Each structure stands twice: as C-alpha cells, then as structure tokens.
C-alpha cells in the first residue's frame, strides 16, 4: 500500500470505444515492473521527481529516468510531499516546469489543511498553490489538476459532493480569469481524498469533477466501480 495511488483522469477514445483514462501511480522502484505488467491502455505515473535533469542529488529521480522506464506521467505537489517532506510551492513549480519540458504529463496536486478550511481560507490556499503551478505551465494539455483536501486524505472523511464541486468550480473560474477561458473549459480537475466505491458515483455526478485521484481504494475490487463512476 505504501505510496500506491491510481488516478482516474477522464474518458478518452481508445481503439474506437470510450474508455476511462486510468493511470497507476507506482513507487519509483516499481515503475518499470508496473509498466511491463499493465495493459498498454493503462498509463503509469511516478509519484515524484526532481527539478533538474542531473547532478549531485542522491536519492532523487529525474524525468529522464522516469521516461527511461516507459512511463509518461508524474504526480507532483502531493500533500505528503508538501507537509511531510516540506516541499515549498516554489520547488513544486520548478518540478512542474522541468517535468513538462522533459515531456512528461503532470498530475499537479493542491489542497487545504483542516485548520485552513475552518479559518475560511480554502480559496486563498488553493489559488496560491494553483498560481505557482500555472506560472510554470506552457502546454495545459499535459496537465491535470488534482484537488485533494488534506483533511480527507486517508482519514475516511470525504469532502461532500457539494464541497468538492464548490472548490472545483472556483478553480475553473480562477483559471478562466488568470490563464484563459479555453484552458478553463478544457483542463481536467480531479478530486482525491478517501474516494471509495460508496462515494464515487455522487462525486462523479458533479459538473466540474472530471475524475479521481484514488489512494487505498485503488488496491481493492471496488476500484472497478470508481473507474466506471463517470460511465
């Protein structure tokens, strides 16, 4: 389970049929194994990467290394990277820029902590996080935003469908005002935070929830229900 994540991004056309785009986020030492074992229609993502191509950065992995494994995605800015490992908005922005320049797709995570939601500053927090990401993006077709309220990750608590929709809608409005209307209408904004087979249908029914970033439930049979939630 440690570090295992799977993101359902959206539906795409695959071999003439509509198929949910599924990306498995595997720990770095299993990237090659995951890519070799999974069906080609399922993508694979690294859970992190560094901001430069090479150098004396013991223990880090670069986008070039990730691509060497045949992997096309990377998750950046996850709350555990921010709040456990102390990654700053600035560092995450630099990672986003380098990953995109290297040809990887980026699943960029944003989200507020419980005290920030209770203080009424959710929008301020997620807008600041999104701005640093947006400042480092040239091609939005390679970017998926993942809204994960920190208080709902691994806690069993899930933002209500209305809470998720409210933040997703506000994010889309921010992108429209600060990036472009075209990007606002096309960018995929997915929700993460204790998504389960029991909660996915109602969450998926929300207008601005385009898919999910799934943690523990991705290792259970109910993951199939989550994949098909927007069917």
UniProtKB/TrEMBL annotation:
MF terms (GO), sorted A to Z: methylglyoxal synthase activity; triose-phosphate isomerase activity
Pathway it works in: Carbohydrate degradation; glycolysis; D-glyceraldehyde 3-phosphate from glycerone phosphate: step 1/1; Carbohydrate biosynthesis; gluconeogenesis
Subunit structure, as described in the record: Homodimer.
GO biological process, one term: gluconeogenesis
Keyword Protein transport assigned: no
Residues making up the signal peptide according to the UniProt record: none
Entry-linked InterPro entries: Aldolase_TIM, TIM_sf, TrioseP_Isoase_bac/euk, Triosephosphate_isomerase, Triosephosphate_isomerase_AS
Catalyzed reactions: dihydroxyacetone phosphate = methylglyoxal + phosphate; D-glyceraldehyde 3-phosphate = dihydroxyacetone phosphate
Function comment: Triosephosphate isomerase is an extremely efficient metabolic enzyme that catalyzes the interconversion between dihydroxyacetone phosphate (DHAP) and D-glyceraldehyde-3-phosphate (G3P) in glycolysis and gluconeogenesis. It is also responsible for the non-negligible production of methylglyoxal a reactive cytotoxic side-product that modifies and can alter proteins, DNA and lipids.
PANTHER family: TRIOSEPHOSPHATE ISOMERASE
Keyword check for NADP: no
EC number: 5.3.1.1
Protein name as catalogued: Triosephosphate isomerase
GO cellular component, one term: cytosol
Keywords: Gluconeogenesis, Glycolysis, Isomerase, Lyase
Family listed: Belongs to the triosephosphate isomerase family.
Pfam families on file: TIM
């Amino acid at each position: 389970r440690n570090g295992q994540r799977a993101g359902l991004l959206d539906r795409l056309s695959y071999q003439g049929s509509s198929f949910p785009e599924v990306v498995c986020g595997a720990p770095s030492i299993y990237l090659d194994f995951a890519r070799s074992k999974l069906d080609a229609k399922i993508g694979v993502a690294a859970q992190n990467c560094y901001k430069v191509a090479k150098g004396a950065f013991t223990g880090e992995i670069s986008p070039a290394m990730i691509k060497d494994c045949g992997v096309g995605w990377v998750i950046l800015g996850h709350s555990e990277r921010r709040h456990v490992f102390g990654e700053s908005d600035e560092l995450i922005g630099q990672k986003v820029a380098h990953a995109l320049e290297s040809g990887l797709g980026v699943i960029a995570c944003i989200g507020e902590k419980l005290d920030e939601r209770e203080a009424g500053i959710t929008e301020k927090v997620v807008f600041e996080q999104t701005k640093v990401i947006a400042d480092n993006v040239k091609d939005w077709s390679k970017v998926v935003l993942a809204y994960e309220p920190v208080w709902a990750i691994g806690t069993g608590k899930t933002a209500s469908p209305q809470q998720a929709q409210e933040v997703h809608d506000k994010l889309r409005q921010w992108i429209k005002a600060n990036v472009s209307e075209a990007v606002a209408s096309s960018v995929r904004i997915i929700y993460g935070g204790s998504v389960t087979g029991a909660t996915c249908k109602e969450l998926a029914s929300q207008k601005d929830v385009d898919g999910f970033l799934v943690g523990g439930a991705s290792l259970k049979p109910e993951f199939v229900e989550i994949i098909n939630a927007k069917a």
